[in-house]
Amino acid sequence: MLGGGATIGNMIGEAAIAGGSDLDLRSAEMECFLANKTNSSSNNNNNPGHRSRISARERAAVFKDFHEAEGKLFCTSCNIILDHTRRSTITDHLKSKKHLKRKVEYEARRENRKQRMPTPSVEHQTGAQEVKRELAYEFLRMFLEASLPLEKADHPSVRGFLMHHVNDASSIPPSDQLCRIYFPSVYDSEKRLLKTVTLAGKKIALIVDESWDADYRFILNVLAAPLEKDVAGRIRPYLLDTIFLKSIDHGIVARSVVTVISEYNIAFENVYFFTTDNAAYMKKAFSAGLKVLLPNCIHITRLTHVLDLIMGQLQSPFQLTTTFMSIFRKLPSKRKGRYLDHLRQCNPAMRASVPPDPFAGGWSSYFRAAVYHRDHVKHQAAFLQKEMDQGFACETMERLWVGIIIIKL
Ligand SMILES: [Zn+2]
């Protein structure tokens, strides 16, 4: 991605746009486009799917969200190449959710850069410097989106790869500089994106929970989940703020919540759920304050506790499965090793793994483990048979064997 023409081309385009001299260039291009348009057949222009002979540069002159590099039309915000010969491709892209999201993000980044570097010397920095900065931003963003620890950017293998395959790799700073200089700007742009796109005008659920940091200070985490599925089909919560407090009571909770939702321009009537634990001050924060301000909101306490209770009830008819899963976890490590070898022999294409812990925490771990055993029970039966044939029987094995027989019945 980093070494590709799209990224570098995009950076060059952004640099040109940011450089300030683009206006003259654009008006010249506009004239050129108009001249061509006048000469071309007017019939063709009425057809949205028509493949025109117009160049990428001419398209870029008309649509300000795009730029041209090496004869190709790039969307400046999305960093992708579009078919410049079809006007409909461009107009469809401009209306797409992905583009609108990326555009806000891109504008926020440019705005941040302007605010952070107001000195004339920086304003007049060369396009090449701008390209290098953009590379560092893109690199950091990739790490954050993939949830990679930033210190991995300093790993010799990562550095070696970058030096060999990425132009200007030396301009990607080490992790401490990425964190200190570049990270605040990316954080600001993500925050702006949340405000202006992700949460804007949507019905939301607030999730508020307290905890402690290493110095035993109270931390109040305020999250919001838009009540609609994202592109991956999931309801996704976003951390709006982490507030450090000397003490905590219902007034502080209510004030903190109001401050945070106001900062994100969330309309009071768009908050539908206030989800917390069962603490008395959380209940009072809602009943004595937030309830009045948030007219459509209901308070849900101990949601995870309720889920745990429901899931506990769902597990109770399946005692044998639960016992089987928990005994299987207790197999000694040597035997687990032989079990993995057995799985590899059964199916070399499958990735052999030991069963997940059904009680690792959270109700979903039980279901993950149950699904694993459902998919492996045939191999487990053969493994137990083999072990006992080789004289490795023990009480645990016998209990498992009985379990397998009953399950198979
Ligand atoms: Zn785009």
TrEMBL record:
Residues 108-128 are annotated as: Disordered. One of its GO terms (biological process) is regulation of transcription by RNA polymerase II. SUPFAM superfamilies: Ribonuclease H-like (SSF53098). GO terms for molecular function: double-stranded DNA binding. InterPro entries: Cggbp1, RNaseH-like_sf. GO terms for cellular component: nucleus. This is CGG triplet repeat-binding protein 1.
